[in-house]
Write a structure and sequence with these properties.
Shape of chain B: elongated
Helix content of chain A: 55-70%
Number of strands of chain B: 0
Largest interface: B-C, 52 and 71 residues
CATH class of one domain in chain A: Mainly Alpha
Largest sheet of chain A: 2 strands, antiparallel
Strand content of chain B: under 5%
Number of strands of chain A: 2
Chains: A mainly alpha (391), B mainly alpha (154), C alpha+beta (250)
Low-confidence stretches of chain A: none
Largest sheet of chain B: none
Helix content of chain B: 40-55%
Strand content of chain A: under 5%
Mean pLDDT of chain B: 91
Oligomer: heterotrimer
Mean pLDDT of chain A: 92
Radius of gyration of chain B: 33 Å
Radius of gyration of chain A: 22 Å
Order of helices and strands of chain A: EHHHHHHHHHHHHHEH
Shape of chain A: globular
């Protein structure tokens, strides 16, 4: 905290030199974004009747659940007193967006996601409870909640309620991730964050990342299962990825153009920051490689006919680029917002440790954990029809 | 309706579970939320008492002057009249509480006086400041200046 | 002989002291245990501070006094001093420095004709504090007498308040893992003492004020001087008033 720390340029208020929100707080919106995006993809089929993406419906829900379960962990690791985090439920401060998160998260987890998964799987769960063995049988039995009614009437009720839940799930998903954008966007002290566009930008970039994630996981899991990829499904997903990307990019450009035009007191400081400390992560990674290139590639597919193999390669490439791009976007918002001084007279740098509580290592572990959970979920609640056993 | 209860009974179980959860939460909340939370606003009033119970380290010049009235008398007539005792002598509430327990140590004049009076472009022009190297050539400040009546001739 | 004189002084001192509040405070100091002064009424005070940068000599007494009084960890600052150097009309680009927050004074740096001055800073104890607004659990709050405090037993250490403060006055205390900042020496002012920084300031560049006290000199001061607050556009209703604050101050 000595002001002569290398990495400080110009003047920072003495208490500003050290960053408060670390890579874990970059990870958190990234993870909830994947949840919201995956859920929106699932709702495409259920509510908007885009039948082509049906093969990914259950998978998208499980992906959303796997990531949602991990979402609070980076926050817990970050808190000075994680053992006090329950206070957010006990005495939530109603003027604080962060306080409302606890309830939005709970609502989304319990009422939307778990209910929707349960209702969609219930018929299979009852079947597995009867035919299964050992520990798995008991898990399924608990999951049935004691009811074995899978008559057509019951299933029809399930379907109607499920539809309704997906319906309210869409604004709920927007709320889940939109509020994260609001947490940043409502801070008048920080001009990099303070904009009404923030929740909207967050939501659309979340959708982009979620759709790309489900697309990649679907393609990867099909390859691992040695099952043919449903190209009609993947082509449709890629198309929605393109549309969402265009909207996302437009919103980000709108924010940029606004800032450049209004040229308020913060502009020169922010502009300098983007051209120096954030150049690689924002200009190269997020914009050029992470947005313009994927949009160009996906757009190309819409106007030119490519062979299946080529399309698959493009989808994998753009999917990966997208995931990196949206992570870079979160990085640029969270870390970027703390690299410049609120006096607009200086800059600091982010020193990320490796094996400490908020270091790179736990961040890597936390981004891998959802895949472990997803593996367990896929084994427990297979999202694809059982293949006939080889004769 | 009857059909719903027959075929939607699993949903009622869910509702029951949720209600149980909400009730459990409310019970826990009643037990765990600190007493009188919200009395003055959205916070625990005990926090104000916690902070008020912190120990005082600086006694305040009025406390010093009660015992050291002779020095106070001298100082009040000189240029340092408005410089608090503890501004130079440091925090001495413990000494005021039990004078023999803590004997105040005065820091070296080469550090103490210089902190205020070393010439600096940022200091206001009305403030007496010197380049100590030229002014005293390394001689201790209190060789010529009496700290409680610093102006030579007072 | 010494003991009797001291005893006499103790007793008579209690009566000759200027304010009864100081007498009460002195009593508590002598008694050794600090219990809340029983006659302190939170509704009768509205705390503020007046700072005159033209009186500040950048000696760092306030920073050191605050550190001693409040056990502020090294490298973090509940109050600090900034030195500004402004060339001619270039308000937009002052050169600012704060070596170790001004804790050990300021080494001479400028030898030119630019305008140079010191600005002490601390928590502004805003009446409409954005930090209080964003706290998720109510661990930071504004007291009825206008002081913004942190409940060290309740704070989660989420650091949202640190992000929300426009003035950079908050930090995360590494010893308590909670948010921390200037308390306006609440433990002192509720006993009739002034803040440690004001007590230690040799030029009275910083003066504690009570807006709810009709006899407080601040009322006349505000009436007769040009005063500013930091970042008025943030509408935080800061209660630290600066006299003749230069336009270059951030």
């Amino acid at each position: 905290m000595h002001p002569l720390l290398p990495g400080v340029e110009g003047y920072m208020y003495p208490n500003e030199i050290e960053l408060q929100w670390s890579i874990l707080i970059v990870l958190y919106p990234y993870i909830t974004g994947l949840v919201a995006g995956a859920f929106i993809l699932a709702s495409l089929e259920r509510v908007f009747k885009v039948e082509a993406v049906k093969p990914t419906y259950r998978l998208a829900l499980l992906v959303a659940l796997a990531f949602l379960l991990v979402a609070p962990l980076p926050l817990q690791l970050h808190l000075g007193h994680p053992e006090r985090s329950f206070e957010m439920y006990l005495t939530p401060h109603r003027s604080s967006a962060m306080a409302m998160f606890g309830f939005v998260y709970l609502w989304y987890l319990m009422i939307v996601l778990l209910m929707e998964i349960w209702l969609d799987y219930r018929k299979d769960i009852v079947g597995w409870a009867e035919s299964g063995a050992g520990l798995k049988k008991w898990i399924y039995k608990i999951l049935t909640l004691g009811s074995r009614n899978i008559s057509p009437a019951a299933l029809r009720i399930d379907d109607q309620v499920g539809y309704f839940i997906t319906l309210i799930g869409i604004p709920s998903a927007f709320l889940l991730h939109g509020y994260v954008g609001f947490i940043f966007g409502s801070i008048k002290a920080n001009p990099w964050w303070s904009t009404p566009l923030m929740p909207v930008v967050f939501i659309f970039s979340a959708m982009v990342s979620g759709i790309a994630a489900v697309m990649l996981i679907y393609m990867l899991s099909s390859k691992l299962r040695r099952v043919q990829i449903d190209m009609r499904c993947v082509d449709t997903i890629a198309r929605y990825l393109l549309y969402t990307f265009i909207i996302d990019f437009s919103l980000e450009m709108l924010d940029l153009i606004h800032r450049l035009y209004e040229a308020d007191e913060s502009l020169s400081a922010l502009d300098f920051m983007v051209h120096t400390r954030l150049f690689f992560s924002q200009v190269i990674l997020q914009i050029l490689l992470g947005t313009l290139l994927p949009i160009a590639l996906l757009g190309l597919i819409q106007i030119t006919k490519f062979a299946e193999k080529t399309r698959k390669a493009i989808y994998v490439a753009t999917g990966c680029l997208t995931l990196v791009s949206i992570f870079a976007m979160r990085w640029n918002v969270v870390i970027g917002g703390q690299l410049f001084s609120k006096s607009f007279l200086g800059y600091t740098s982010y020193k990320m440790d490796f094996a400490t509580r908020e270091g790179l290592l736990p961040a890597i572990a936390l981004i891998l954990l959802p895949f472990v959970i997803l593996y367990v979920l896929v084994k427990l609640l297979p999202p694809w029809p059982k293949r006939e056993a080889a004769a | 309706m009857k059909e719903f209860f027959r075929n939607g009974e699993h949903l009622i179980r869910v509702l029951l579970l949720l209600t149980l959860g909400v009730v459990a939460f409310l019970v826990i909340r009643r037990a765990v939320v600190p007493a009188e939370f919200g009395k003055y606003g959205h916070f625990r009033p005990g926090a104000m008492d916690d902070i008020r119970a912190r120990p005082v380290k600086f006694a305040g010049h009025e406390t010093c002057e009660a015992c050291h009235s002779d020095q106070a008398e001298v100082k009040s007539k000189g240029k340092h009249a408005n410089v608090g005792c503890e501004a130079c002598h440091g925090p001495l509430a413990k000494h005021a509480e039990d004078p023999s327990s803590v004997v105040p140590q005065l820091p070296d004049t080469a550090v103490l006086c210089v902190r205020c009076h070393e010439a600096n472009q940022a200091k206001p022009k009305w403030f007496p400041q010197v380049v100590t190297a030229e002014h005293s050539g390394g001689v201790a400040c209190n060789t010529c200046h009496k700290p409680h009546a610093p102006k030579i001739g007072d | 002989m010494e003991m009797t004189r001291r005893d006499l002084l103790k007793k008579s001192g209690k009566f000759i002291l200027l304010t009864s509040a100081a007498a009460a405070a002195w009593e508590h100091v002598l008694a050794g245990n600090i219990e809340s002064a029983p006659n302190y009424d939170v509704t009768k005070h509205w705390w503020a501070m007046v700072i005159d940068p033209e009186k500040c000599i950048g000696c760092g007494n306030c920073v050191r006094a605050c550190e001693a009084e409040n056990d502020v960890p090294t490298g973090y600052f509940r109050t600090w001093i900034e030195r500004y150097h402004v060339n001619d009309a270039d308000f937009e680009h002052p050169q600012v420095d704060s070596p170790n927050g001004g804790h050990d004074g300021f080494p001479e740096k400028y030898h030119d004709s630019g305008k140079t001055f010191f600005v002490p800073k601390l928590c502004n104890h805003c009446a409409d504090s954005p930090c209080v607004q964003v706290c998720p659990v109510g661990a930071t709050f504004r007291t009825p007498d206008g002081v913004v405090l942190v409940d060290q037993k309740y704070c989660l250490g989420c650091r949202y308040c640190i992000q929300a403060c426009p003035y950079g006055c908050r930090f995360l205390n590494p010893k308590t893992n909670t948010a921390d900042k200037c308390t306006l020496c609440y433990h002192r002012i509720t006993q009739g003492l002034t803040t440690a920084c004001c007590e230690a300031c040799p030029t009275q560049a910083r003066v504690l004020a009570d807006l709810r006290n009709p006899k407080d000199p601040i009322h006349e001061f505000l009436r007769t001087h040009s005063v500013q607050v930091l970042k008025p556009q943030m509408a935080t209703h800061a209660k630290v008033f600066y006299r003749n604050l230069d336009g270059s101050v951030r």
